[in-house]
Design goal:
Largest sheet: none
Oligomer: single chain
Order of helices and strands: HHH
Shape: elongated
Number of helices: 3
Number of strands: 0
Length: 99
């Protein structure tokens, strides 16, 4: 006889998905969204707990949720890289405009 699956991991994963998607769907893309500071805040408050959850759930029956958490952590890494590139481009354009 198998033990019924708990629902808390699915609730945790749902929170992670909403925390990742809601900022982009509520207000759309804004110029300040891809700043390095906001990206690090997203990392601390959302990507770090998802990374811990992914590692924790890897060896449990909830392996599928672990894969979803890894995917969301990868999305945060992409967000961070876009933020860094946007910052570098902004600095290079500002330097080119100065006499």
């Amino acid at each position: 006889m198998t033990t019924p699956a708990s629902t808390w991991p699915y609730v945790l994963f749902g929170y992670g998905v909403l925390a990742t998607i809601v900022p982009w769907t509520v207000g759309g893309f804004v110029e300040g969204e891809f700043g390095i500071g906001p990206s690090f805040l997203l990392g601390v408050f959302f990507a770090l707990p998802l990374w811990v959850s992914a590692r924790w759930l890897e060896t449990t029956p909830y392996h599928l949720i672990s894969l979803g958490c890894w995917a969301l952590v990868a999305l945060w890494i992409v967000h961070l890289l876009v933020s860094v590139v946007a910052r570098l481009r902004k600095k290079s354009f500002k330097a080119a405009d100065e006499p």
